[in-house]
Design brief:
single chain, mainly alpha, 59% helix
């Protein structure tokens, strides 16, 4: 499993734990819904700027998204 998949799984985990949809997360982070979906599937090589937007929207420290098995 590579870092993009780990990051994506953690985005999905934190998003689901807050009970919000990809569309709501997209609105909160200023990103597109399809981009959020691609990130969650590990299909996008996300920039640090966009990673920070997602982390801030989910109220999580950025480092939490890079840890395996959150």
């Amino acid at each position: 499993m590579n870092i993009t998949h780990i990051f994506g799984e953690n985005v999905r985990y934190f998003r689901n734990s807050k009970g919000i949809s990809q569309e709501i997360l997209a609105d909160m982070s200023g990103l597109h819904r399809t981009y959020i979906g691609a990130v969650e599937r590990g299909e996008r090589n996300i920039t640090l700027i966009n990673a920070e937007k997602i982390a801030n929207a989910l109220n999580q420290p950025l480092k939490a998204f890079f840890q395996k098995n959150v």
